[in-house]
Amino acid sequence: MIRLQNLKKDYIVKGHKTPALRGIDLSIEKGEIFGIIGHSGAGKSTLIRCINLLERPTAGSVIVDGVDLTKLDEGKLQEQRRHIGMIFQHFNLLSSATVGENVAFPLKLAKRPKAEIDKKVKEMLALVGLEQHRDKYPAQLSGGQKQRVGIARALASDPKVLLCDEATSALDPQTTNSILALLLDINRKLGLTIVLITHEMHVIRSICDRVGVIDGGHIVEMGNVLDVFLKPQHPTTQEFVEQVADSSELRAAVAHEKASGERTILRVTFLGEQTYQPILFQTMQETGTVFSILQGTISRMKDTPYGQLVIELGGDAQQNRKAVDTLRQRGLEVEVI
Ligand SMILES: Nc1ncnc2c1ncn2[C@@H]1O[C@H](COP(=O)(O)OP(=O)(O)OP(=O)(O)O)[C@@H](O)[C@H]1O
């Protein structure tokens, strides 16, 4: 659905060239939720704004649904942009217009007939759960409700792609979760392709299928969220994963144990159905090994449950080795730390 090829963007500041994107290659499939995560200044906003050419790239191509947007004149570009909706961190609503008028705005610009606009506004407000608020003004709404208006407005033109520019960064955690749930619901109901940028791993973990990590204008790591999350390779990715891993307490516990002699400490990862099966208990019983738990998590990445336990084995060297081998044979991911 979206293909970025060798995309580059330089800003010229006081005669000096500042590279923001240094050659991005990316393919996003139809119907997928693709997340781009990076620190401040990494190039996230520039990248997402290049997808609808709000920012014109210095080089490379932006192909959306088979059309290279960089090759279009302004008129044709406007036409193609109708297929690409966008929502923003600070919502960008018209403060002097009601909720209904905000949602109707892009349809009025496109000179759609009044009856069609009224029908669409009603439909969109129902989709985001704001039917009761049609005649209110943005100032009378909460942050989460404002973002729902932003989503309804973005979807009013039936786009194929929704771009989300830090769409939950101004919201509290609970409201963030409700907006993420809404995006996931819309993705499923409408088959909409969603591209979002964020600096929060929680957002990626909750709803994305794949993720690209951007650093210094390069994509430094990309893959399925599950793979990237469980086996982060690049130091920047590892930092983001730490955001949600609560690893400082674990580091202290491991250091404490290791300080008192030779220890076998394992990080064991369970995925999907394994998460709820007694594989660990059975293995330890069979190999005659005892163990203690230093840290444990059961969580979910989009639809996949996963568990991660850090355990210390208390058997002799041979028992411990046998336990590690058996856990691996039973399909668990085991890392000796
Ligand atoms: N309009 C501009 N003019 C000049 N330089 C810019 C402009 N916009 C961005 N930059 C520079 O380009 C680089 C990438 O910025 P960008 O805003 O894309 O990063 P970001 O990852 O979205 O950061 P943040 O999370 O802080 O918004 C930075 O070095 C930034 O200073």
UniProtKB/TrEMBL annotation:
Residues 2-241 form the ABC transporter domain. SUPFAM superfamilies: ACT-like, P-loop containing nucleoside triphosphate hydrolases. Gene3D superfamilies: 3.30.70.260, P-loop containing nucleotide triphosphate hydrolases. Keywords: Amino-acid transport, ATP-binding, Cell membrane, Membrane, Nucleotide-binding, Translocase, Transport. Pfam families: ABC_tran (PF00005), NIL (PF09383). InterPro entries: AAA+_ATPase, ABC_transporter-like_ATP-bd, ABC_transporter-like_CS, ACT-like_dom_sf, MetN_ABC, MetN_ABC_transporter-like, NIL_domain, P-loop_NTPase. The keyword Cell membrane applies. It comes from the Bacteria. The keyword Cell membrane applies. GO terms for molecular function: ATP binding; ATP hydrolysis activity. GO terms for cellular component: plasma membrane. GO terms for biological process: amino acid transport. CDD domains: ABC_MetN_methionine_transporter. Belongs to the ABC transporter superfamily. This is Methionine ABC transporter ATP-binding protein.
